[in-house]
Amino acid sequence: MQSFFKNTWNSINPLISSLLNNDLIVLKNEQYKVLQPLGEGGYAFVYLIEHVENGKKFALKKIKCHSGREGIQKALKEAKFHEEFNHSYLLKSLHVEVQKEADGVQYVHIMFPFFQKGTVAQIVQNQHAKSTFVSKRYVLSWSLCLLQALKYLHNGGEESEFENTMDTTNLIDLGVESNPVKKKSYKCYIHGDVKPENLLLSNDVSNAVLTDFGSIYRVPSVISDNSQAIAFQDMASENCTMSYRAPELFHVRPGSTITEKADIWSFGCVLYAIMFGYTPFEKQVSQGGSLALAVCNAQYSFPSKHPYHPALVDLVRECLRLNPEQRPSAEYLIHHITEMMNS
Ligand SMILES: Nc1ncnc2c1ncn2[C@@H]1O[C@H](COP(=O)(O)OP(=O)(O)OP(=O)(O)O)[C@@H](O)[C@H]1O
Question: What is the ipTM of this complex?
Answer without folding.
Answer: 0.97
